[in-house]
């Protein structure tokens, strides 16, 4: 299971999005903005009125509701109507064909460049300027980069929940493994530690020594080894030497623990979100998790003994890798000004402070642990931490939380490409066939590169070289 992002968009949905341009009369070829005066002109105003229709944003918890309430109040007298179901590209295609798109959508950030390339969403640079927001200052630069296409910003980022290692201290102690041996800048030591912690019964794993979350977190591990899935322009680079080295290590790590298939089968049986999770039952030595899993684990805080460690690149630097969602304004939106205002207000410092206050009240009611909010905004992260994150009385969780915040010092993300989902899919397939032994890592990545390049060549950037 991929754990770094709870808001994954399926390949089918992305494929449907790629076909939208043919259905959308407001979407010009090559990702350009619509003519001046139309709904997609990129022109925004503070004079708000009418109805604002959103899609994909679901204020189902206290964090979402508090932000939504603040933003909705801020755009009055405009009224807000929400479709709270997850964004669906096929549904969006039908809406675009009928000229009835929402005014504001919430999508996975990796999808933003694809929609921008097809002219389905409009640039927000003038939206940011109108409200006095500098994106690289308001949000983590890595998050802004992921929603930037052809030099323009097309989304408003929210959340940046970085990955880290969460390890079971009891499993480690039993195997004679220290936290220092979970240093991912030393890949051979990770394999050795995994072998020490790994256990099998009846030919099947009973304890996974080290779980790198494959194929879901494959791009993270490429970056650990100095590689990447794409270059700065978004062009695929899957078959680079660093990537081959990374995938070769991934296979070595899996083979040292009984092989990918048996590990995956064992993981599928784990009660990841329940009271008998893998840390309660001591079924794992160390796993790759996004920051949000600390909240899940806190439900069993009295039954687990855990320690956190940052993920480090080969040069010894911690890497704060994350995905997330973004708010975007469709090109054919009928009320882009209200959409712009709502998105800016929902990700403002005041909104995140309100969300932090609401989360703190929930934590108090549940007698839980406040792990903070990883909002996508450095100022908001600090404000919530300063106001609400202190000693919890549980040293293990205090250390986990402190480690999670340390990962924000050097943020990274998948990147920005109009062929982003195709690159992700190609990488995932390459990892699966390499780990299964169907292909060697070099061949798997070469084939993946060929597949991703075909998708790249269909984009406006690819067609222009």
Describe the structure.
Residues 1-21 form the signal peptide. It contains 20 helices and 14 strands. With 465 residues, it is of the alpha/beta class. It has 2 domains: 11-160 and 324-355, D-Maltodextrin-Binding Protein, domain 2, CATH 3.40.190.10; 163-321 and 419-463, D-Maltodextrin-Binding Protein, domain 2, CATH 3.40.190.10. The longest helix has 18 residues, at 349-366. The two termini are 36 Å apart. Residues 1-39 have low confidence and may be disordered.
Write the layout of secondary structure elements.
Elements: H1 11-18, E1 51-55, H2 62-74, E2 79-83, H3 89-98, E3 104-108, H4 112-117, H5 125-130, H6 135-138, H7 141-146, E4 148-149, E5 152-153, E6 156-158, E7 163-168, H8 169-175, H9 187-197, E8 199-201, E9 204-211, H10 218-224, H11 241-255, H12 260-268, E10 284-290, H13 293-297, E11 306-309, E12 320-321, E13 325-328, H14 336-346, H15 349-366, H16 378-388, H17 395-406, E14 411-412, H18 420-435, H19 441-456, H20 460-463
Parallel strand pairs: 1-2, 1-3, 9-10, 12-14
Antiparallel strand pairs: 3-13, 4-5, 6-13, 7-10, 7-11, 8-9
Helix pairs in contact: 1-3, 2-14, 2-15, 10-11, 15-16, 18-19
Organism: Sinomonas cellulolyticus
Signal peptide: 1-21
Region (Disordered): 50-69, 438-465
């Amino acid at each position: 299971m991929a754990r770094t992002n709870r808001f994954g968009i399926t390949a089918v949905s992305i494929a449907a999005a790629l076909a939208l341009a043919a259905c959308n009369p407001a979407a010009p070829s090559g990702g350009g903005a619509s003519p001046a005066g139309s709904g997609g002109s990129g022109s925004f105003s503070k004079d708000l009125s009418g109805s604002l229709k959103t899609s994909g944003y679901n204020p189902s918890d206290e964090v979402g509701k508090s932000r939504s309430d603040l933003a909705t109040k801020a755009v009055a007298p405009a009224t807000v109507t929400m479709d709270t179901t997850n964004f669906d590209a096929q549904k969006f295609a039908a809406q675009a064909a009928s000229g009835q798109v929402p005014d504001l959508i919430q999508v996975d950030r990796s999808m933003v460049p694809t929609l921008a390339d097809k002219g389905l969403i409009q640039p927000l640079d003038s939206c940011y300027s109108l409200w006095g927001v500098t994106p690289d200052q308001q949000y983590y630069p890595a998050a802004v980069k992921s929603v930037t296409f052809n030099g323009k910003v097309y989304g408003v980022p929210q959340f940046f929940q970085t990955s880290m290692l969460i390890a079971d201290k009891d499993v480690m102690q039993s195997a004679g493994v220290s936290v220092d041996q979970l240093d991912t800048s030393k890949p051979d030591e990770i394999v050795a530690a995994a072998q020490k912690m790994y256990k099998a019964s009846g030919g099947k794993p009973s304890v996974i020594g080290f779980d790198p979350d494959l194929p879901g977190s494959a791009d993270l591990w490429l970056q650990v080894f100095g590689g990447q899935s794409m270059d700065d322009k978004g062009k695929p680079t899957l078959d680079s030497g660093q990537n081959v080295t990374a995938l070769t290590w991934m296979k070595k790590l899996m083979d040292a623990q009984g092989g990918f298939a048996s590990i995956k089968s064992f993981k599928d049986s784990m009660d990841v979100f329940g009271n008998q999770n893998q840390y309660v039952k001591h079924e794992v030595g160390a796993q790759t998790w996004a920051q949000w899993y600390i909240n899940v684990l806190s439900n069993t805080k009295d039954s687990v003994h855990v320690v956190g460690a940052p993920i480090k690149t080969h040069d010894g630097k911690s890497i704060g890798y994350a995905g997330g969602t973004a708010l975007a304004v469709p090109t054919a939106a009928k009320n882009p000004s209200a959409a712009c205002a709502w998105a800016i207000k929902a990700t403002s410092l005041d909104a995140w402070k309100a969300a932090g206050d609401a989360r703190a009240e929930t934590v108090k009611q549940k007698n839980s642990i406040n792990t903070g909010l990883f909002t996508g905004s450095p100022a908001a992260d600090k404000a919530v931490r300063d106001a609400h994150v202190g000693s919890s009385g549980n040293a293990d969780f205090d250390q986990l939380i402190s480690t999670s915040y340390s990962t924000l010092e050097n943020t990274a993300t998948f990147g920005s490409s109009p062929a982003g989902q195709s690159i992700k899919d190609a990488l995932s397939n390459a990892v699966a066939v390499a780990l299964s032994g169907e292909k060697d890592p070099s061949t798997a990545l070469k084939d993946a590169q060929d597949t991703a390049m075909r998708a790249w060549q269909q984009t406006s950037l690819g067609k222009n070289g």
